[in-house]
UniProtKB/TrEMBL annotation:
The keyword Transmembrane does not apply. GO terms for molecular function: ATP binding; ATP hydrolysis activity. Pfam families: ABC_tran (PF00005). It comes from the Bacteria. Keywords: ATP-binding, Nucleotide-binding, Transport. The lineage of its organism: Bacteria, Pseudomonadati, Bacteroidota, Chitinophagia, Chitinophagales. Gene3D superfamilies: P-loop containing nucleotide triphosphate hydrolases (3.40.50.300). Signal peptide: none annotated. InterPro entries: AAA+_ATPase, ABC_transporter-like_ATP-bd, P-loop_NTPase. This is ABC-2 type transport system ATP-binding protein.
Length: 310
């Protein structure tokens, strides 16, 4: 039987008296980009450090492709690459020197190292800077070097801790695209505290709150929580909220000022279409309409409540 790429069983860790993560179980059975989502202090870095064998959990086990990380750390670590929150770069080396050093650390035979470095330089789009000192690179390029060291040994799994943190908007898009590219050949787990980041880059979400898993599933499943029963709409001219209230299945209408309305409905899915039809029929001259997304705080609260009830 095929082993899951990652399996965590009852993972718990405490640094001092308080548990940083508690009783976490999950499996990654198929390839894709998995977003580990949670606010600051929710336990993401603790989880990632444990998954990568950097931190020994107080309790629980991690298996990478069926290899128990406690029993055979070298084999398990050979299957993965890790980019911690602070990239482990030697800034006084050139990219070439640094990646050759990493290839050695990853036990790539000396005569294959140049080839491995060339491949990863190409993959990460940094070949033209290979002779440059890492200290003289922009944040985005330093992060590319960080990703390059994580994939130099062509691992099955790559774990990236907040890979877009501190980058400017252009660099964020570039790094996100690079992550999508490297994920074509392997599984990627990335952590972030930004909901928009997982929605833009990931296929699956594992959400942590106070060290516990409060959601695990696909981004589509998660979006059902993100889209509550509210629609925001703007018309070119203000119309009475009464007209909107007459549409079947509209539960309530709130006027937001000017010609903007928040419409509470039973289910957002078919109501967007119904309201557009009514707008055309009644000549409302609709300017903008969309399902209102919940803030991450609201989703956290919702999911945490659900978790404590189950
Ligand atoms: N070395 C440490 N010693 C003591 N407590 C720690 C240590 N590292 C983390 N913690 C605590 O464990 C909890 C989880 O922290 P962790 O860094 O894993 O969260 P995080 O979700 O990665 O947060 P951030 O996004 O801020 O890095 C927090 O309460 C944090 O204060």
């Amino acid at each position: 039987m095929k082993q899951p790429i990652v399996k965590a069983v009852q993972l718990s860790h405490r640094y001092t008296a308080q548990w940083a993560i508690r009783d976490i179980d999950f499996e990654i059975p198929v390839r894709g980009i998995y977003g580990l989502l949670g606010s600051n202090g929710s336990g993401k870095s603790t989880m990632m450090n444990i998954l990568c064998g950097v931190l020994k959990p107080t309790k629980g086990d991690v298996f990478i492709n069926g290899v128990d990380i406690r029993k055979d750390a070298i084999a398990a670590k050979g299957l993965m690459g890790f980019l911690p929150q602070r990239p482990p770069l030697h800034i006084d080396l050139t990219i070439d020197e640094f990646l050759t050093h990493c290839a050695g650390l990853r036990l790539i035979p000396r005569k294959e190292q140049a080839n491995a470095v060339n491949k990863v330089l190409e993959k990460c789009g940094i070949t033209h800077f290979r002779k440059r000192l890492i200290r003289n690179l922009s944040g985005g390029y330093q992060q590319r070097v960080g990703i390059a060291q994580a994939i130099i040994h062509n691992p099955e799994l790559v774990v990236l801790d907040e890979p877009t943190n501190g980058l400017d908007p252009n660099q964020i898009v570039e790094i996100r695209n690079l992550i999508k590219e490297i994920a074509e050949e392997r599984t990627v787990i990335l952590s972030t505290h930004m909901l928009s980041e997982v929605q833009a880059a990931c296929n699956y979400i594992l959400m942590l709150a106070d060290g516990r898993v409060v959601f695990s599933g696909s981004v589509d499943e998660f979006d059902r929580y993100a889209a509550p029963g509210t629609i925001l709409l703007t018309m070119l001219e203000p119309r009475g909220a009464e007209e909107l209230k007459r549409i079947p299945n509209v539960v309530a209408v709130e006027t937001l000022g000017g010609s903007r309305y928040r419409v509470k409905v039973d289910s957002v899915d078919d109501m967007l279409e119904k309201i557009i039809d009514q707008s055309v029929h009644n000549g409302w001259r609709l300017k903008e309409i969309n399902a209102e997304k919940n803030s991450m705080d609201t989703i956290f609260a919702e999911l945490s409540k659900k978790q404590s009830r189950s």
